[in-house]
Amino acid sequence: MKKTLNRWAYIIIGTFILIFSGLVYAWTTLAAPIQARFPEWSEAQISLTFTIVMSGFCIGGLLGGILQKKMKPYVVMWISGVLLLLGFLMTSWAQSPGMLYIGFGVFGGLGSGLSYNIVMSCVSRWFPDKKGLCSGILLMGFGIGSFLIGKLYTAITPSDGSDQWRTIFLIFGIILLVIMVLGSFFTVNPPAGWNAPAPKKAPKDVQFYAQVKPLDMLKTRNFWLYFIWTLFMSGAGLMIISQGRPIALDTLQWADPTAAQLGTVATIVGLTSIFNAIGRVIFGFLFDKIGRFLEMLIGGICFIISLVLILIALSSHSMFVLVLAYIMTGIAYGCVTPTNSSFAMQFFGPENYAVNLPIVNLNLLFASFSSTLAGAVKDATNSYNAIIYIVLGLIVVGIIINCLIRKPKNV
Q: Between these two residues, 31 and 86, which has the higher pLDDT value?
């Protein structure tokens, strides 16, 4: 058997790769200096870049799964690195929104989706006994990377209308290429004959139920029930997160906030990202320990608690309750992505996981519009309560759907 590293080394390296691959999710932060440089570009034009990134990410993930059937993982990782370099390079040259759409949106999204798929697919094969924990750790890196690197970017890049951001984007592109190329040598599948250590104890429903091909997966009732669940959960999380800053300002009722107070708001809102990353590990661990049904149920209950806390914060204007609400929101939203990965592996098997997972993740294409919906609801009602009640409805329906998902009859 070919000599391999300790399997935990692969998860550490994979997490490091995804910290940088997830940088495209920091678009809101990265765009601030660009918007200051081109004030004539509307908010809608700038925001469209993120929608294109999400689309590119989903398509890139699907392409990554297909390419794995034809190429070695390291080749796909190299392609990812080149696309990310091109995306950030084009963004550094941008003189029009169109260049942002093609560069950061299309190339950046595709590159991120390719590397995400390859890392998730390869590393998860080393942890068939801990697929939930493995997914949670990897996705923690993917989620927190945009927050940490976004903070660094904000610290070193002024939003004064200058062109300094162009140099930073160029540097980011080069760093991403280097990391994808170096990381590709450690993004490998287990060799033939390799077996994971036998788990000491696992719930009955953590076994692989079947090896299901993508087209056959689309014909199953469980797939569509789960797809609606993850769509509702993702949409609910994005609706709340997209309104995080204005909800905080409305709660604290600072008529003319100072720079220090705005910094406090940014820190409070940032708690959502931090605890979202922590939540991914928690729910990945729970999936392995207590099974899918209870793990998804707990995720829904956490969401309901977070919504109640937000309503209390809005009415009481309590910073303490607001902090608790955003911590719980982050944890609850952290349930979604590791469950996507673990569900795809458990119900449809590892053999077609590289294609099945990005199909499940296509829910992000639809969920990404939920932030626009939240803004429209706020404009129509002039209240955040209506948004909370809509999200609460989505979560309740999600809990009902969770109860309808059943173990396949042939298991």
A: 86
pLDDT at 22 over 80: yes
- The radius of gyration of the chain's CA atoms, rounded to the nearest angstrom, is 21
pTM of the model: 0.83
Dihedrals φ, ψ of 116, to 5°? Answer: -60, -50
Give the pLDDT band of residue 199 (cuts 50, 70, 90): low
Which CATH superfamily includes the segment(s) 205-404? Answer: MFS general substrate transporter like domains (1.20.1250.20)
Which residue has tokens 């590393």?
Answer: 123
Distance CA 10, CA 281 (A): 17
Alpha carbon distance 223, 348 (integer Å): 9
Domain 7-184 architecture: Up-down Bundle (1.20)
Q: pLDDT digit string (tens) for 279-331?
A: 999 999 999 889 899 999 999 999 999 999 999 999 999 999 999 999 999 99
| Cβ pair 94, 100 in contact under 8 A | yes
Encoded tokens for 113? 């989706």
